[in-house]
């Protein structure tokens, strides 16, 4: 077996897996905080109308539809001694941290909305550079199916651990700075500054320990951008993963972006923000640990379907429950978090889809393929809260005020029922996903043979 092939099939160390998990922990130090608090920062601190915030979020995602594939194509055509993706993590991490801090600064007067749009779009672009590069590493660190699943599991552990810590600590930090349950611009600024600073060494830890070893079958072949794009959009498994993640991420991030309104204005329990923001993430970690063995036993599709159905039903039930029933609300939020155990699974399907298309057409598109699925996450992260805010505004939401019964109904509808229903359409693309463990093993064996043949051919030419 060739050196590249043997290197790619060697098992990853625990340190490497841990380092990879630190990458999503680092990403979410700023991104989870932004997903949870940016909307209410814009409406209740900056003073922007919900409709204006929705426009900012949507414009940013429209630009991402261009920016993400563009950078994906650039990254996978990069060729350095450090790899295709790692250099971007090294050079752009400090700029990502700076952009996160600037997003939570305020500019008074009529320029507030323009400044908010510019800083948020800049953050999104830099997040693409760093996080897309980080995510793409999982497709080039190993070809071992078990290690690929382990990478995804460690990544989601990092995601949920950071979510737990941020959800529990952020209200405490901001409350201590502001001196009350009403958070000030200074409390948001200092909190994001702390998280941004901590994210930098974590990303560098990823850079130092996660190496790129998987090379394309036809390494060195120059592939036109049009051919790469065609390879991605005609990749049936990848497009099905993209669709299922669009629905699931819309529901997941949409709820995350507006649940704080539900806690403050519908439940009227701002003192419980830490509990209700962190409990689902804690239960997701427990869910991942308890169900990871069943993924192999039952298959990815079945376990993912159970998670989507369970999460959707829980949010729908929350809408019909009395929001003052604290015990029942805690139980349903805990169950919702548990059923989110399914979220790492589609991420582990991305390397499968990349291998499928490389075996079929001989072109490997790690960067563009990951850009497509990364875009689904960003679309959910923006359009979910954007549509929820539009609904809240239509029902009469007024920032920093006692809400009318109609406004509270709108906030409840936007934060629970709408997103609960949105989990269910994700089942359709999941049903048609064609790959399983047996097919993946056949594809990997075929790729290994092709890589060996290509390396032998190169060796022969160099004699």
Give a verbal description of the structure:
The protein has 463 residues and is mainly alpha-helical. The protein has a single domain (3-453), classed as MFS general substrate transporter like domains (Growth Hormone, Chain: A, Up-down Bundle). Helices cover 79% and strands 0% of the residues. The chain has 17 helices and no strands. The chain has helices at residues 3-9, 14-46, 50-76, 86-103, 112-137, 145-178, 185-209, 225-233, 236-266, 273-298, 300-320, 326-339, 344-361, 366-394, 405-422, 427-432, 437-461. The protein is globular. The protein starts with a helix and ends with a helix. 55% of the residues are buried.
Strand and helix layout:
Blueprint (H helix, E strand, L loop, with lengths): L2 H7 L4 H33 L3 H27 L9 H18 L8 H26 L7 H34 L6 H25 L15 H9 L2 H31 L6 H26 L1 H21 L5 H14 L4 H18 L4 H29 L10 H18 L4 H6 L4 H25 L2
List key phrases describing it.
463 residues; mainly alpha; Growth Hormone, Chain: A; 17 helices; disordered N terminus
The profile of the biggest β sheet is: none
Helix content: over 70%
Would you give the CATH topology? Growth Hormone, Chain: A
Shape: globular
Q: Give the beta-strand count.
A: 0
CATH class: Mainly Alpha
CATH architectural type: Up-down Bundle
Mean of pLDDT: 87
By CATH, the superfamily comes out as MFS general substrate transporter like domains
Number of helices: 17
What gap, in angstroms, lies between the N and C termini?
18 Å
- Secondary-structure element string: HHHHHHHHHHHHHHHHH
Low-confidence stretches: 1-8
- Please report which band the strand proportion falls in: under 5%, 5-15%, 15-25%, 25-35%, 35-45% or over 45%: under 5%
Report the C-alpha radius of gyration, rounded: 22 Å
Write down the oligomeric state.
Answer: single chain
